[in-house]
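Supplementary Methods S3. Input chains for the assembly prediction are listed below.
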Amino acid sequence: MATVSIEQVWRRFGPHSAVADLTLDVRDGEFLVLLGPSGCGKTTSLRMLAGLERPTSGIIRLDDRIVNDVPPGERDVGMVFQSYALYPHMNVYRNLAFGPRIRRENKAETHKALLEVSEVLGLSALLDRRPSELSGGQRQRVALGRALLRRPKLFLMDEPLSNLDAALRGQVRAELVRLHGQYKITTVYVTHDQVEAMTMADKIAVMFAGRLQQAGTAQEVFDNPVNMMVATFIGSPPMNILPGHLSEDESGIRIEVLGQTLRLPSWASIKGTHASAQQVSVGIRPTDIIADTLADCTGPRARIDFVESMGAETFLTLTCASNKLICRAPGRLRLNVGDEVGLVLDVNYLYAFDYEGGNSIIDRSGQAGDARPHPTKGVVTHGTI
Amino acid sequence: MIQSASAVADGNAGGPPIADVKKTREWFVTNGLLAIIGLAFLAPMLWLALAAVDANAGWALQLPHFTLANLIAVTRGDYLQALLNTLEISLVATGVSTIAGVFGGYALSRRNIPLSDELMVGVLFLTGIPVAIMIVPVFEVFAKYDLLSLVPTGVFLGVTSLPFALWLIKTAIDAVPKELEEAATIERANILQVILHVTVPVALPGIFAAAIYSFINAWGAFLPPLVLISDPSQATGPLKIYGLIGSAAVRYGDIAAFSIVYSLPVVVLYILMSRPFSGGFSMGGAVKG
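Predicted structure tokens for the full assembly:
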């Protein structure tokens, strides 16, 4: 059990900053996911927490103790490596017992704890196998068991699921969440997979180019991204970004996009420093657009370029007023390439980003929880001109 | 049109295949030459095998009057002592080059040592210097400090095989994934524990190859023991064989039998060594497989 506090930590490799000015807190028992594309500094951050890498500057605290100079073995952390890092010359039992043996812990107790952990992880039948005789998922569980057996204060995981196939990934994800619930060990988990982040995290920290962009719950990061990078990274298919114009008058905020002027709900306001009328990048998620085949649709019209049927839903790639965008339509709709559809944009989930910097312009702090039904054809009543 | 074309094809098919004749001749010439060369290599081996069990062995290749007396004689007394001496310097040499090779190879592989690449290339080139060039100064030093005996000779032989052993071991350690060592470090293993419990076992095939190389190198060494060992009772195997040739009456049977006994361990070690060399190193299961 531990809290982690990272204060203004930099990690430079020559002229290149792998991690720049990272400030982040992890609460006791929290499951924090560091999310970002490869090379964004998330693994370096994790390695600094483990003690495998030294921060160039800044302070890392574990339970209020500054650990910058504490070697990895003294930090009481358990780590699961992306490659699992199982010792190939030892069987599963000896892999698990390696740490206790090195630390000269009581053998009988180790044996008992080891059997317990291997029971929890379903490794009991595999104890005398070598890593080369195990499947990917089994190796992953051994690596997990090795870290668990330590009863660490802090659990560090570096893309532990990236070497598993898709079906297994979902299963292990659920298993990790269950284990976290059972042991309540503070966990920092690195991944580039937003699905892992969304499904497992108590808190997501999104990193780009060495910098922390946003930290918050999955829903916060999804619903209220601080900038265009976060907005387009999270969510699949990614958020559509369209050129638009934003203006404000006494009746509220208006956004012109796709040749249509939309009025934002009354909770919306413009963040402090931004000008009240300017060119912006308008963002809208594919799931917040409704493509309607009805002839009486008053919204912009678009032509279908490409249809991706996923069974339960269909993703349409559209051209609308010379802009490309993706939108979700219900499955089983008979839509063909070349058809025309009308679009309805959900103004509750319309985003505007600074045209140059990409920062979010609209203050959504007044937005209440979402009471609307799942957007389906013809249900949305707002969002008209 | 079609008919005439097929007629031409038939005409050719009737004759003898010219290419085949040429091939057959080539086959005979190539294999004949190889057989002659092979015989030149095989004859001494055959002589060794036959003379070793021949009661009145001579220099010529002949059918033996079968006896085991030669073989029994060369595993006793002076001969046995020579084998034990050879074993001693070989083990010392193996220990020196392997232990120094493991720690040196680890440091060169894992630590940021300035100019380490240049150092490794330098080491490789220096292996080209023949032992014969170094032996005189080494003799002077050994003589001055009263080191003309088995163990110091073993140390010297270990040092001569260290460069190659260092290369073999460093390459083997390079192939050990760093995460394995980091995982052990996180478990609170110190650097020595990491090396002994993780790096060395995983790099063992390469280290084993280096050890065998050093052993064979010392086992077969002739010049260094000849120069550096003064006491006849400390003579090693090659010196013993050399002594047999020099004596008034050459005892061919003993030479052959002793040569066979003396070369047996090397043959066994070569067989053992061929596996890690040909198979490469398997890291199966250590990382994503």
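Chain B is about 75% helix and 0% strand. Chain B touches chain A through 26 residues (CB under 8 Å).
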